[in-house]
UniProtKB/TrEMBL annotation, chains A, B:
Pfam families: CobA_CobO_BtuR (PF02572). The lineage of its organism: Bacteria, Bacillati, Actinomycetota, Actinomycetes, Mycobacteriales. This is Cob(I)alamin adenosyltransferase. It comes from the Bacteria. CDD domains: CobA_ACA (cd00561).
Amino acid sequence: MPKGQPLTVPDDNLTTRQRRNRPLLMVHTGDGKGKSTAAFGMALRGWSQGFDIGVFQFVKSAKWRVGEQTVLERLGALHDETGEGGPVQWHKMGSGWSWSRKAGSTEDHAGDAVAGWTEVKRRLAEQTHDLYVLDEFTYPINWGWVDVDDVVETLRGRPGHQHVVITGRRAHPELVEIADLVTEMTKVKHPMDVGQKGQRGIEW
Amino acid sequence: MPKGQPLTVPDDNLTTRQRRNRPLLMVHTGDGKGKSTAAFGMALRGWSQGFDIGVFQFVKSAKWRVGEQTVLERLGALHDETGEGGPVQWHKMGSGWSWSRKAGSTEDHAGDAVAGWTEVKRRLAEQTHDLYVLDEFTYPINWGWVDVDDVVETLRGRPGHQHVVITGRRAHPELVEIADLVTEMTKVKHPMDVGQKGQRGIEW
C-alpha cells in the first residue's frame, strides 16, 4: 500500500506529531483468514520498533498460533539477551492463564475469559505494554461473558500511549464504533471448502 | 479461528496426507489493511516450521515494510547462527533488485518488475524456497508489465512443494481462479479518513 495522505485535516487543535502519535484501537474482523496473522504481523513490526508487546489469546487451542508464539517469544528472548527490539509476553488460556500458573485444568471458559479481561484492564491502567494483541476477544464479548460497555469504557479511557488490536469474527457494533481502524477479512475462497485440511506452516 | 473440518471430501484419489501437504497459492487482496502484514505473518509462521522463505517486494519504498524486513532478516540470521527456524531472503526493488546489486538507480519500473518475475520463475523451477511472498505483485500484472497468462501457467505448473502468497489490490480474475485461498481485506474504517497519518510501529 503506498503511503497515503489524509483525506481531511481534523479540527482538533492537535499538531501532526500529536495526531501521528495517537494510540490506536484496531479491530480485525470478518469470516476470512488473516485476522490474527495480520495482528501478529503488527506485533512483529512493533517489536522491531522496540515496543513492549503483550499477547492475550482468548481461545483454548493446542496447535493454533504455535508458530507465531514460538517466533514472538524467541524475539522477546533476543531482546532480553541483546537489547534488540522490544520485550514480548505471550499469555494464553489453557489451564487458566499463563501468568496465574494455576495447577490442573479449568473448564470454566467464561470465568477464564473474565480473568483474562480483568488482567488486561489492570495492565492498561498500569500502562504495562505498548501494544496489546487481544486475540479472538470478540467471542467472549459476543457470548456475554465480558461486558461490552466495560470494554468500551476501559479502552476509551486508557491512559498514555497504548495500542490495542482485537481480532475475531462479528466484532460488536460498539467496538467498531470506538475503533480507529477496522478491517474486515472476507473469505473469497478457502481450501477447506474443497476438502483441503489445515497444514503445517500454513495454519500453524 | 477454530480448527475447521472440510465441508466436503474431494474425489481426487489423494490421501488426507497428500491433500494436507498440497502446495498452496494464496492471494490477499482488497482495499483494506492487512494484506501484506498477514503475508509476513505467514512467513513468520513458516520460519518457525523451518521453511526456506523468499520475499520479493514489487514496490519501491523506503519506509514501508522496514519493520517486517528487519525482523525476518534477523530471524534468517538466527537460523544461520543457531539452526533455529529456516533461512530468509528478502529482495526488494529499489535500485534494481537486491540480488543484482546493480549500481545507481533505475527508473525503468516495468523492466524491474519483469526482471523480478523472471528471477521468481527461475527460483520456482529450481525449487529454491518453500514459501514465496510476492508482495504487491498484483500491480505489475494489472499494469500489463508482467503477462498474467505467463504467471498463471508458471504457478500452475510449479514443481515440488512450494507455497506462494501474492498480495495487492484488485487481484486479476485469472489469478483468483487458480488460487487455493483468496482473502479480501475490506476497509471498514481507517484513521487516514479522519486525518490520522501513518505512524511508527503501526504503518512501518
